[in-house]
UniProtKB/TrEMBL annotation:
Keyword line: Hydrolase
Protein name: Lipase family protein
SUPFAM superfamilies in the record: alpha/beta-Hydrolases
Any Pfam family matching the protein: Lipase_3
């Protein structure tokens, strides 16, 4: 694996930058000390972490995120779910929708609660750190991807900050069609959702009540990143290849494909 070097002058989509933001999303799983040390090694001289408790009945105990800033770039990253929490977290997928605070449309109530826990401090930190019109990027994996998408929406619709890019990995469906349409119009060419083969979390909550936002980048069973949608037959074939790749555990890749390490492995290879 080649060394990770952030291009702080990046302004648009490119696999080397996607790879960096994927590593930033994985870093959100680490403790505050490691987050700060790693971020400074990437050239960001201001770092602030957030960890806010969540009350029951939501299955997660807290919301975690961090902001890292340099002279040219700011990255906001949200922590997702640990692999052993995925099955428990999936029990929340039928939760009711609630109206989003900042714009038209409705969202998963648990996602909104998780974002509400940190949003005030996070947006205040962004205002504090953004002192020279830096670009703003938002990222996250799993539940962190849902929070990244919703945080970017709220920053834009409520606080008039349009992120330069929102890159998520293994993100679940987050909102209703009305919010998805408003989001796609505002974030055209800025939002990219990566899905690794049979990642089960990207398939919930169910349609049509919930909808994904564009634009998807599919990682196929061979680890190739597809820039364009596959045909129906091609998608079914690719899914079958993934499900049958492990002869000793057929079908197990629905959870295995959700691992952030799997996303990192494929993006490291693609960005060479």
């Amino acid at each position: 694996m080649t060394a990770l070097t952030f291009d702080h002058t990046a302004t648009g989509y490119g696999l080397p930058h996607v790879r960096c933001l994927a590593h930033a999303a994985r870093l959100a799983y680490k403790d505050e000390t490691e987050v700060e040390e790693t971020a400074r090694g990437w050239g960001f001289d201001r770092v602030r972490s957030f960890r806010m408790p969540l009350s029951r009945p939501f299955v997660l105990e807290d919301t975690q995120a961090y902001v890292m800033a340099g002279d040219d770039m700011i990255v906001i990253a949200f922590r997702g779910t640990e692999p052993e929490q995925v099955r428990d977290w999936l029990s929340d997928v039928n939760a009711p929708q609630v109206r989003e605070h900042s714009c038209e449309g409705r969202v998963h109530w648990g996602f909104q609660r998780a974002l509400d826990a940190v949003y005030s401090e996070l947006s205040g930190t962004l205002r504090e750190f953004r002192d020279s019109d830096q670009t703003v990027w938002v990222t996250g994996h799993s539940l962190g991807g849902a929070l990244a998408m919703l945080a970017a929406a709220r920053l834009h619709f409520a606080d008039d900050v349009l992120a330069d890019g929102v890159y998520t990995f293994g993100q679940p469906r987050t909102c209703d069609p009305a919010l998805a349409r408003a989001y796609e119009q505002a974030f055209q060419g800025r939002m990219y959702r990566f899905v690794n083969n049979n990642d089960i979390v990207a398939q919930v909550p169910p349609e049509p009540l919930y909808r994904h936002v564009s634009e998807v980048r599919h990682i196929d069973a061979g680890g190739r990143i597809r820039e364009k949608p596959m045909s129906v037959l091609g998608g079914l074939t690719d899914s079958f290849e993934g499900h049958t790749a492990d002869v000793f555990s057929p079908g197990a890749d629905a959870l295995r494909d959700h691992s952030m390490n799997a996303y990192i492995t494929h993006l490291d290879a693609a960005a060479r």
